[in-house]
Here is the input.
Amino acid sequence: MAHSAPAIVILGNGSLATARKIQQLYSGALIHGLADRVEGADRSYREFGATLRELYQQDTPIIALCAAGIVIRTLAPLLLEKGAEPPVLAVAEDGSAVVPLLGGLGGVNVMARAIAAGLDVAAAITTSGELRFGTCLLNPPSGYALGDLELGKRFVSDLLAGQSVRIEGAAPWLDQAQLPEDPQARLSIHVGSAERTPAANELMIYPRSVLVAVSAEVADLPSAVRMALHQAKIAVQSLACLLASDLDMANPALREAALELGVPLRFTSASGVSELARHTVPHATVVTADSGIAIAVASQPLELAQIGRARGRLAVIGLGPGAAELMVPAVKAELARANDVLGYETYVRMAGPFRDDQVLHCTDNREEMQRARHAFELAAQGRSVVVVSSGDPGVFAMAAAVLEALHESSEPAWHSVDLEILPGVSASLATAAQAGAPLGHDFCVMSLSDNLKPWAIIEKRLDLAAEADLALAFYNPISRARPWQLGQALEIVGRHRTPETVVVLGRDIGRPGQTLRVTTLGALTPDQVDMRTMVLIGSSTTCVFPRAEGGKWVYTPRWYGDKPTS
Ligand code: SAH
Here is the structure.
């Protein structure tokens, strides 16, 4: 199974040197350091336990530079649950010991050996099969699938008990292994794509060498594919991917079928399934089953990258205000899978660090439509593309621009892209949360920028919203090019609100050097505000009281008029 780059988790500065050495072994590996204790980590975290469990549940390999016991106790609650089991290793802070703990089938021993070699020590391998044979038989390389795990375990213990083994079929990765081979052996490892019930004492390993070209019209595709493979006496475990025509790229039935069969879906331009199959896998044997399904069997595992292309993906994501803790997990996962990242340079930097293989396209903040079109061009080539916004992408940001570009386009390839908008914590909500709950009742969100709308509309909306006694959240309150608008806006609001009205100013919320100020409408002047500030203006019911730790709590009660009895 292919895992993402490992997370290297450290608790103190003392481990940084060892962490850096390990980082060199894995492109894309990030060092996660405990906030306030580690300087110079790629990511900082506040809670060790929560962080480790989150990584584990996201199936991220974990290299923790701390006592093995701490890691075990932290992950223990998750171990009984079925689900992801990424490799987990404990490494001594000074790099003197490497202990693989979990994820035997995910290649933890392979990682332990690589890390140990990098640190010039021996890995603490305790898996007997692996020690004896130098490989984990139950973890064949990518391109191969193990038939049955439980049978496999019994098979390995028989081998360990001293039995010999025969290898049938091509298993190049076992050439290096120190297996007790004997052509007369009772036990056998069988590598092949034929469908059959394993004989007693037989370990089946399937090369993923079969492609099935399908037409989207076939009813109940997953069953039809299984049936076709069965009729051709080909094991479903050998299925490497489904292939379909470019024209059906956005077809949901195809996507669901691939998901259900647990294989990737690729596309190419050809008419008719047998032509699809024939052209994509050279030298393959093509079996045409029913109309609408053709099977191509290669002599070796298929290289997915050489088979057509994937459906491109475009995700418009919100980073949240800045702090990594406030970024939603779906956004983190999207950034990890991205081939291309587009956005205003400041935000692209905030979304990093990135791996060397990820392409960054930084542009000026004002080139939004151009950026949106560029994103579609890249995604239409089959790439996984991310467009970044700060806060939420749907709030005065890229999501609307991306949809506008798509709406204007008649390019079928753009409309076939797998487009998704992933939300983020918007600046108004992040600021409100820090102040308390100033937006706890009805509120109105406005951008004061008149770049894309006439100032007269802004004035009218301000007037009506202020009159309606809505709390107000102002984005883009002021800039060098728009120096007078905020003063004007405050004047309009002042016609409907008293000078005592509560105002919250949040600057760089969730970013280094953030400030939060609670003031009043009467005391607010435009020079206290810049383009990195969120302005929240309370309604007539918004109130303030002191916090024990200093400063103030601000909230707008949920009720209006007479307080209901509770
Ligand atoms: N999509 C963003 C808003 C983009 S408009 C979001 O949902 O937050 C840019 C404006 O948002 C800025 O002028 C500022 O008013 C506000 N803003 C964005 N990030 C902020 C932050 N971290 N702290 C305070 N205000 C912020």
